[in-house]
Amino acid sequence: MDYVFMMDSDSDLPFDLKEKYDIPVVYMPYSLDGKEYFDDLGQTINHKDYYDRMRAGALPVTSALNEENYLEYFDPILKEKDLLFVAFSSKLSSTIQAVYSAREKLLEKYPDRKFIVVDTLSISTPVVVLALKAHEKYRAGAPIEEVAAWLEENKLRAQAWFTVDDLKYLKRGGRISPMAAAMGSMLDIKPVITESREGTLVNVDKIRGRKKSITYLADKFFENEPDHSALVILLHADAPDDAAALKDMILTRDPSLNVRVDNVGPVIGAHCGPGTLAVTFMGRERTV
């Protein structure tokens, strides 16, 4: 190919798929107990240990890459080829501004190159299910403009519906008030959150009880008309039994779907906390 198809690790791209399709990835940073790490898609992290440390009181901190970091990733590629970069939502981090700054400098340095950035308006595996469908076109030899256009036209079909097990992590991130967190925990309230058309996270419902919240995710999945030609990814933050229950609910209703279960990565997990459970898929366009 005369261009490179690239992603970042805030997509939670499963490492086996990165290897299978040879997709270059920008690794995003996080800190735990004062030590900096990079999210390398699970190569060097024990996910259970990570979430157990959070349960014990550890508070991971995430940070954005700067322009220089992106120049280090992008410059070697632009020396040789054009670049299509599939980025996570601009509404959830300022990181993409550093991507745009690096892009501007590199296009001045390499004026004959093409460097397209697609703001997917998603984070975590909705980016993956979208990107994998686009990557089929890439592997078939479609030009960079065609693949970028397909991503833009279909990005609102990438959906995530998820619930958290402990409200304190949403409280810490400022997404709910301390009073709402306290009352919700007392009443065993499980919020259901989705990614909006604008690329933000929106609390769409409050379900009482974990089992009911899992059933709600399955119902929302089918309500939004999943694309049978695309992968369905169930994500969990050290909640394998709940993920298995959700998978069973989905496949009982439609065994023809291609469903896999993966871990929430450390950067995303720092914000949603252990026990998070999500269904991510390509479906109809988001309505929220």
Q: Strand-residue fraction? A: 15-25%
CATH fold title of the largest domain: Rossmann fold
Indicate how many domains the architecture comprises: 2
Mean pLDDT over the full residue set: 92
Helix-strand sequence: EHEEEHEHEHEHHEHHEEHEHEHE
Cα radius of gyration in angstroms: 19 Å
At the first level of CATH, the class of the largest domain is Alpha Beta
**N- to C-terminal separation?**
37 Å
Number of strands: 13
Structural notes for this entry:
The chain is α/β, with parallel strands linked by helices and 288 residues long. The chain has two domains: 3-155, Rossmann fold (3-Layer(aba) Sandwich); 157-282, Hypothetical Protein Tm841, Chain: A,domain 3. 41% of the residues lie in helices and 23% in strands. The strands form three sheets. Strands 10-9-8-13-11-12 form a six-stranded mixed sheet. A four-stranded parallel sheet has the order 2-1-6-7, with helices on both faces. Strands 4-3-5 form a three-stranded antiparallel sheet, covered by helices on one side. A hairpin with a 2-residue loop joins strand 3 (29-32) and strand 4. Helix 9 (210-223) packs across helix 10. The two termini are 37 Å apart.
